Amino acid sequence: MAIPESQFETWAHQGSITQSKNTYATIKSALEDSASSYYGKSFEVFLQGSYGNDTNIYGESDVDVVIRLDSIFRSNIRERPIEEQTAYNRIFSDATYSFDDFKAAVQAVLIKRFGANVVKPGNKAITIAADASRRSADVVVCYQYRTYQQFDPQKPNDCTLGIIIPSASGDIINYPKLHSANLTELHQATVSMFKPMVRIFKNMRSQMVEEGMLRDGTAPSYYLEGLFYNVPAEQYVASSYGDTFCNGVNWLLKADRKKLVCANWQYWLLGNSNVQWNEADFDSFLSAVCKLWKEWK
Prior knowledge:
The chain has about 300 residues and is α+β, with helices and mostly antiparallel strands. It is about 40% helix and about 15% strand. It is built from ten helices and seven strands. The longest helix has 17 residues, at about 195-210.
């Protein structure tokens, strides 16, 4: 029996936003404290993840906050021709403020505001535990990464901006703002159907994990956003989540998986790097989705 439209409509609903909004505002205010040692540096605080992308579902609690240091950066300049590298090095010099100092200062600010028993540093993010009025949050401390298609000394800031997260398991380079902007563009191009479809997939994932059909951690939200991002706009049916689901899954099953892209358009979706979805998990997720559809009661 096929999954009824009423179930898809339930899954499509967005989760709570009021408490998440307040959580972000509280953390952002703390990070932008004028008394911090880094206040005079160039930095930006912004959202990433499900809440930032409007794909959050009921039961999701974490708010993902990014604080990106912009006074230091890395780039792909070594991949550019030697004359571009020479021009780049002529313009930019080594930074005098270190990322380690910045991260330590951010952690100190958070501990001062929320308490040492609440703030826990991790490999990729600083976790802030929830309380009665605040959701749990992950604060990603990172610095700017620049991707140049061509380095023009007359336009040294003409590049694609991303973030770089130093990690013990390998630096992570990603593009959360570009990812979010592309999701919104597709959402608008599909008569506001795209983000509900992502929420449908995320709710299906939760049910499949609960029923033992899918291993927890197989399909992170970031990859589910990227997965359905590849489905062409013409596959969306404005009046039906169910028809859009069938069109999208059938399209994905037939697609050339080597040409599936991350929503930021900087990486292929499938692969073995720390910003790609491995193919075994991709296959497990699609197989479980098809099984849930076919065996729905």
